[in-house]
Write a structure and sequence with these properties.
The chain has 91 residues and is mainly alpha-helical. The protein is built from 2 helices and 2 strands; from the N terminus they run H-E-E-H.
């Protein structure tokens, strides 16, 4: 039996737009800059974005901002659940 490899799906997201969105989000989060952030022009059909190398302090800042975002998302979810419980109790 012959098996075929799955071909990579063409990107459904514009990789340049995704790269710029990441660049803007990192800057807005804590003025974080990834100097090597760029497009991978060697494989345009794959839509790859090169994140590149970063100093340890920059990586730590990114991790800190992601953790903050996760904590805030958890808090918002908990508040929504509490509001839903109160609404149900009032009915």
């Amino acid at each position: 039996m012959v098996t075929r490899k799955k071909l990579a799906k063409p990107p459904t997201v514009d990789p340049h737009a995704a790269m710029e969105a990441l660049r803007e989000a990192l800057w807005a989060a804590n003025r974080i800059v990834l100097p090597s952030l760029s497009m991978d022009y060697a494989s345009p059909h794959l839509g790859l974005v090169v994140l590149g190398s970063a100093r340890a302090d920059v990586v730590a800042k990114i991790a800190e901002e992601l953790a903050k975002g996760r904590r805030l998302a958890d808090e918002v979810a908990a508040l929504k659940r509490e509001l839903d419980r109160r609404r149900i109790g009032e009915s």
